[in-house]
């Protein structure tokens, strides 16, 4: 469901994207080409800053936002999800935040007030809060990273995890095409 926020902004959605009918997309949200938004996802850009302004939530092309994901932002701050990225089931991305291109964020993970570098893999049940991750980092399952975390203890992404991320993007790109095709049958 696409809906207006209290300041009057409506989502802008590419004709080549697929949004599940159970998802809620509210306000100043921009969804680019070939994006998949899964069941029960909520993407909500409706809070303003002290001047009454807000930045957009941008989901870039060929990205998938899976079932039950929540993307929101505090006080109108920007949230950007890069190209070919995967935000897995029930994750939360809360702005201000940026997820770069080719990133995989695993099930039930939370990102807040951080920039996630290109090619990072964040496994399931992780929290990234207030610390930016450089490119190609692998965050092991159930890791909590805060502002005082030693990033030197994190390894580069193993090749098999990057390949997995690419396969998820490919699978969801196929889902966009398939769901768009059957939506026209109804």
TrEMBL record:
Question: By its UniProt entry, which PANTHER family does this protein fall under?
Answer: CARBON DIOXIDE CONCENTRATING MECHANISM PROTEIN CCMM, CARBOXYSOME ASSEMBLY PROTEIN CCMM
Mind listing the UniProt keywords for this protein, alphabetically? Lyase
A Pfam family found in this protein is Hexapep
User: Can you say what this protein is called?
Assistant: Carbonic anhydrase
Q: Known EC number(s)?
A: 4.2.1.1
Asked if the Swiss-Prot or TrEMBL record annotates the protein with the keyword DNA repair, the reply is no
Q: Fetch the InterPro entries from UniProt.
A: Gamma-CA (IPR052265), Hexapep (IPR001451), Trimer_LpxA-like_sf (IPR011004)
Q: Where are the transmembrane segments?
A: none
EC class, as a word, reads: lyase
Record-linked Gene3D superfamilies: Hexapeptide repeat proteins
Instruction: Decide whether keyword Lyase is in the record.
Output: yes
Entry's Gene Ontology molecular function annotations: carbonate dehydratase activity
Q: Per its UniProt entry, which superkingdom is the organism in?
A: Bacteria
